[in-house]
Amino acid sequence: MTSTQVHTSRREELGQFLKACRARIGPEEVGLPPGVRRRTSGLRREEVALLAGVGVTWYTWLEQGRPINASAQVLDAVARTLRMDHPEREHLYRLAELTPSRLPSSVEVVPDTVREVLRALDPLPATVVNGRFDILESNAAQVDLFWEWHSLPCLHKNLLWCCVTEPKARRMLLNYDEEVPHMVARMRAEYGRHVGDPAWEEDIRRLSALCPEFAELWARHEVAEPQLRVREFQHPRVGRMNFRLTELAVSEVPGLRIQVSTPDDASTWALLPGTRRPS
């Protein structure tokens, strides 16, 4: 993909993101009359422009993906009007190219020092992933905890793919309906740095074609930042387990992170040894 095509894709992504944010806000939420002839939910473009103090034509062109310049001050006004939170603002700025984009690494190699950290974290399950949730390295505790997860062959080595394509996932990840949308929103936020990257575009295309649920979640344009999460897991042998999921950035390789699962209660701590496979 040429640089021109990348810029075009980024502008199109920006327009779709703004439309999604605009659609979720009702006029009454910002002090406007609801009206009786609205064809779609949410604010109109001219209403966003009025509330943000920008020109209607300029904002329309922004949503249409036209090559226009947008200052930080103007984007701040649009973000406030659309009630964006911190990760949404960061996503907006990246798509508008107001923050530097990281050049994607052709090969993501896990440093030996990080492998040592993973081993040292055992018996806590831990894995290294990138922005697409590709699994790059895992310690033995992580492998043992999830070795019975799949009823189908694991071909993709990707946490998100393992959730949305595995038939048993909803039975085993008890808070699936909260965790999977969050994962997709995290991936969408990271995508702002990789618009036009062939590997990312192909991954999204394939997963959308394979899984309508992912396609629907992706179309929401929701973005999220890292936060402490509790994942509720039904282990096939030892029963229910609750883990706090903590993420640690890998300083040597930007974009990589270590996900560590820590038991959230005494029961899970007690059950954890029972998840290990016999040697």
Automatic annotation (TrEMBL):
What InterPro entries is this protein classified in?
Cro/C1-type_HTH, Lambda_DNA-bd_dom_sf, MLTR_LBD
For this entry, the protein name equals Transcriptional regulator
Checking SUPFAM superfamilies in the record gives:
lambda repressor-like DNA-binding domains (SSF47413)
Q: Name one GO molecular function term.
A: DNA binding
Q: Which CDD domains match?
A: HTH_XRE (cd00093)
Q: Which top-rank group of organisms is this from?
A: Bacteria
Pfam families assigned: HTH_31 (PF13560), MLTR_LBD (PF17765)
In which organism is this protein found? Answer: Amycolatopsis vastitatis
In this chain the HTH cro/C1-type domain maps to: 17-89
